[in-house]
Amino acid sequence: MKRKHDHGFPSRDAIVAFIRAQPGKVGTREIAREFGLKNADRAELKRILRELADAGTIAKRGRKIHEIAVLPPTVIADITGRDTDGELLAAPTEWDTEENGPAPKIRIHVPRRLQPGTAAGVGDRALLRIEKADDAEGAPYRGRIIKIIDQARTRLLGIFRQLPGGGGLLVPVDKKQAGRELNIAPSDTAGAEDGDLVSVDLIRSRGYGLASGKVKERLGSLASEKAISLIAIHAHEIPQAFSPSALRDAEAAQPATLKGREDWRDLPLVTIDPPDAKDHDDAVHAAPDPDPNNKGGYIVHVAIADVAFYVRPGSALDRDALTRGNSVYFPDRVVPMLPERISNDLCSLVPGEARGALAVRLVIGPDGRKRSHSFHRVLMRSAAKLHYAQAQAAIDGRPDDITGPLLEPILEPLYAAYALVKLARDERDPLDLDLPERKILLKPDGTVDRVIVPERLDAHRLIEEFMILANVAAAEMLEKKALPLIYRVHDEPTQEKVHNLQEFLKTLDLPFAKTGALRPSLFNRVLGQVRGEDYEPLVNEVVLRSQAQAEYSAENYGHFGLNLRRYAHFTSPIRRYADLIVHRALIRALGLGEGALPETETLETLSEVAAQISLTERRAMKAERETADRLIAHFLADRIGATFQGRISGVTRAGLFVKLSDTGADGIIPIRTLGTEYFNYDETRHALVGSRSGAMHRLGDVVDVRLVEAAPVAGALRFELLSEGKVIPRGRKRDATKAVSKSHPGRSPREKVRKPHKGKSGKAKPGKSKKGKSWKR
Q: Do the bridges between strand 354-364 and strand 212-221 make them parallel or antiparallel, or are there none, so unpaired?
């Protein structure tokens, strides 16, 4: 029986509820059929759907309609304008309009008596507590400002280039502004010199020619490429200087003693880190369990630097750490979350020095599963500082002077315990994407020497699995004690993204039969089927893009990628504020002494912290990626005209993104340069398809390209495609070119390309080289 509203037409809430129940499968025809609407009702239905889309309640792609992803209760948003009644409207900062359509509107409620720091205006960025609005006709959410994070910006950031006759030009650092220079008059340079990073106020200009600007602040010289990371630091407003009070607290701090601690100084814990690590905040040890009831099992100890002992809640060090949220790692420098006196000295587990630690004792059964755990506040002394390749070489029969004496008593038990843990890990079957990570190595002058892909060793996996066990134990302990904490969470893919993945895999003749609950093993089966095939990178990319993005949350909804019901970050409080919160909560839960989580910290306050540090984490990821892009663009700037081999890493209606094989550099091939024919964007196949020839350029294809333009300051590269598209006969299996839609004559290429059909917000875009990686631990 068809459902109608009392007045003969369905309510907006009823329409939205129906769309929600049929994700990615609903069009105007299905809605009309569901509610028994006649042809005469279609105009009214379309008007309502248009209003719902304008309000950000639903999104329409092609002929299909879906409900906008639900926002969490605490969100960081940008204030975008006012409604007709003068009330402020906002939109979530981490919303991908290209992927999800218009962002949902949030109408901000302003109380009569404002709290300090909550007076906002258009252009500001704020932390909001939100709830669903009753009136779906307007903004679907109501919000209350918790605090202002950033004021409206009216300045541009760029490199000052001096002109011979005086004055200069501003070369913008934003990749989107590449090539749009500003003129700076001699009287407006504020003493800037060639190569300075400057912030500039725009000056309204009349007539023709370049827009003008006025230098407001000199931020540092970029005469040396050692300073190239300064661009990202200032562009993303990453704090560099600690407050004087925080530095005083750090310098006044004293080493931990045995007071209130267990003595673990005789336990030969070792650190295993990258060779260039500046701090060492985790140490491990393993030994066979002497308990006859656990024959064949092991006891694993994981000791983590006791940062909570030095960084007390509400202190200057704590305020600075929360503002930063995490350390940021560039090829030429680190912007640490904590001063070096804490991170590189008192909390670095260097060999031979007594250090305070919060440690977990893990009892592992012969099947590799964790049987029990206990937490301890200890004083420890590292027995050795090793790097991954060094530890692996010793196990592989090539010990050196340091690892030789450690091989039998320390390294072999560690690897034996890891072999057990791996059994349980394989049984758990977490998402197993092949995601090689490139590392940029610099010369002494700060320029790029080479780009490498470090070999993935069992030493890496050993440390990773032990850290995962410790993180799970921390979450379990705090849940058992009913204390609030910040989880590391990773949602499962949306139904819409799973549907899109299924449609794509059909084009490769790959089955993806979803029955029952969604599990990582379902994706792993697909990845296993394509291992060693030409299209293995393609399938890895598409599976990656179907995943959600990991984040921090005070509410637990599990970690899909790791296939864990509860998970928290515990193992790196030197560089992540989330881990510091977990340490404090454990100290409070177990009565371990000073530095505990205050009683005032509640689920509500931790939700605000989680939203903030999720944003700083993404800020760091963007800054790190942009710096790598700029360094590589500098490296390639003198090779215009050179040819390279690469792989198509993104396909959009704007063109193709290509990642070069040797350097990992990302660049774009604009769609207008692909040839003389029109190219259609095929969202199912992740490809651009020629309208006449049927030639296809697909995500994952290996191609030859020529570098035609490099903008080092913006980190932008433009390529010309040299490879021909693939044309494969109809009916051939495991091919994405079975059917090619034809163009209609007389339309422009821009009209021919349809917008991608995607799911939830804040996820990886085509062409972005790292964005799916954060589902990992």
A: unpaired
In 3D, which of 13, 17, 43 has the Cα closest to residue 28? 43
How many angstroms separate the CA atoms of 761 and 94, rounded?
Answer: 7
Longest dimension (CA), the chain: 88
Give dist(CA 581, CA 485) in Å, integer: 7
Identical fold, 74-148 and 640-721:
yes
Nearest one of 748, 580, 572, 601 to 677, comparing CA atoms: 748
Task: Report pLDDT digits (tens) over 19-40.
Answer: 766 655 677 778 888 788 877 7
Q: How far is CA 501 from CA 23, 164, 494, 529, 650, in A?
A: 14, 56, 11, 15, 16
Predicted confidence band at 2 (pLDDT cuts at 50, 70, 90)?
A: very low
Axis crossing angle, helix 577-590 with helix 316-324, rounded to the nearest 10: 130
Q: Locate 253 and state its tokens.
A: 């701090």
Query: Can you state the angle between helices 577-590 and 458-480, rounded to 10 degrees?
Result: 50
- Name the residue type at position 577: Y
**Global model pTM greater than 0.90:** no
Closest CA to 722 of 693, 702, 692: 702
Report, at the CATH architecture level, how domain 640-721 is classified: Beta Barrel (2.40)
> ∠100-103-105 over CA atoms, to 5°?
150
pLDDT at 761: 37
- Domain 74-148's class? mainly beta
Phi-psi region of 442 (alpha: psi -120 to 50; beta: other; left: phi over 0): beta
Q: Please write the tens of the pLDDT for every residue from 681-730.
A: 998 888 999 988 889 998 888 999 999 999 888 888 999 999 988 886 54
Residue 171 has pLDDT above 70, yes or no: yes
**Helical ranges in 75-177 per DSSP H:** 97-100
Alpha helix ranges (H) inside 554-703: 577-590, 603-636
Q: Enumerate the domain spans of the chain.
A: 12-67, 74-148, 155-221, 244-485+562-619, 493-547, 640-721
Q: Examine the pLDDT at 484 and tell me if it is beyond 70.
A: yes
Is the per-residue pLDDT at 776 higher than 90? no
Nearest to 685 by CA among 509, 436, 434: 509
Phi-psi group of 117: left, alpha or beta (phi > 0 → left; psi -120 to 50 → alpha; rest → beta): left
pLDDT, tens digit, 9 for 90 and up, residues 57-107: 776 655 566 555 667 788 888 888 777 777 788 888 877 655 566 678 888
Condensed to tens digits (0 to 9), the pLDDT of residues 271-299 reads: 999 998 888 999 999 999 999 999 999 99
Q: 684, exposed or middle or buried, with CB in 10 Å at 0-12, 13-18, 19+?
A: middle
For 709, the 3-state DSSP assignment is strand
Burial (CB count <10 Å: 0-12, 13-18, 19+), residue 733: exposed
The tokens for 178 are 């590449």
Q: Which residues pair with 79 in a beta bridge?
A: 90
Contact, 279 vs 329, CB < 8 A? no
Model pLDDT, residue 758: 37
| Ramachandran bin of 604, using left for φ above 0, alpha for ψ from -120 to 50, beta for the remaining angles | alpha
Measured distance CA(496)–CA(569) in Å, rounded: 29
- At residue 43, what is the residue type? A
Structural fold of domain 12-67: Arc Repressor Mutant, subunit A (1.10.10)
Please give the angle made by the CA atoms of 744, 745 and 751, to the nearest 5 degrees: 65
CATH of region 155-221: 2.40.50
d(C-alpha 423, C-alpha 429), whole Å:
10
Q: What is the pLDDT of residue 326?
A: 97
| Residue of 220 and 159 predicted with greater confidence | 159
Per-residue pLDDT of 649-676, as tens digits, reads: 889 888 999 999 888 899 999 999 998 8
